[in-house]
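Feature request, filed as a ticket because there's no other form

It would be nice if the structure record came with a short human-readable summary line next to the tokens. Right now we just get the raw output. Example of a typical job, pasted below so the devs can see what we mean:
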Amino acid sequence: MPTITCIEDLRRLYKRRAPKMFYDYAEAGSWTEQTFRENTSDFNKIYLRQRVAVDMTGRSTASRMIGQDVAMPVALAPVGMTGMQSADGEIKAARAAERFGVPYTLSTMSICSIEDVAAHTQKPFWFQLYVMRDQDYVARLIQRAKDAKCSAMVLTLDLQILGQRHKDLKNGLSTPPKPTPRTLLDLSTKWRWGIEMLQTQRRQFGNIVGHAKDVADMSSLMDWTHKQFDPQLDWEKVKEYKRMWGGPLILKGILDAEDAKKALDVGADAIIVSNHGGRQLDGALSAIRALPAILDAVGDKIEVHLDSGIRSGQDVLKAVAMGAKGTYIGRAYIYGLGAMGEAGVTKALEILHKELDTTMALCGRKQVTDLDRDILLVPEDFTGRWA
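Raw output as currently delivered:
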């Protein structure tokens, strides 16, 4: 086993161990992938102020996200098909998050069902909802999340229309993989992954198969999924889903100050500044560049979180110092999961925590809740000057 010191080490190991179509599914953006790249590179434009001769004993990264105590201001983001990166992947990730003390968010498009994850965890997790045309299915899905004692719902707003990801089309992405000659050749070199997959029955979308009308097998599932994302989702429907859920509601996919204000108006408990990891609107601003304007627009009136581009504890620190109350990791923990299973998710969280704690100390702060813009050097034109 190679020595793992950073998230990039996990990514390299993940690339060797995961089937190509699932690696590409995670490690890709839409169209030219400009936004996907800038989500990470824009963090590098923000510099840190080193401060010295400060007593650094008694440091703490503990914080709160939507009233929930967290070991650090990081949650695991919803990632579709996590259970194809590693057998029973959602269960493994949820257990690792629970032990570490950070929230786990289960995707609607998960392989393991809501009930599967609830049966293998002790504490409530969050559930992410994609709005589908089949309103009866959506209502039953929300009720299933309630029955599983999910403690928050994350409503994704930026997937009414599916962005094109060239790699998925070229790879013929499917779950389980279709047995084409190219796929079989790739899988023949991923024996560790294959052995684990043979030992589980969870290989399809567990929240859909057997729950949506007329979806009983792979062919009907793919046809249903391609037609179901609801292009009519609007703010009135958001209000309705908030009423149906009745608990803490987080709106994911906010990238514009005007939309942040609308999220405030519908009574959301938090918003996630996110561009879907660069997988939807290519050419949109990176999440970290969009954050300041959104904070200016809504201030302390609503809890603002950030997703897209987090690859280190320093990224977490920069986002929190800019004003975010929490951050989300997707690819960072998927790298760990695909590389080393449940232990890899734990490793990813340990890496982020150590980087966050060490950087915080070198910037002269003892509590993550005390981070602010004073420890950052942000370019004057960081948010852009647009005609």
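Something like this underneath would help us a lot:
The mean pLDDT is 95.
The chain has one domain: 7-43+60-359.
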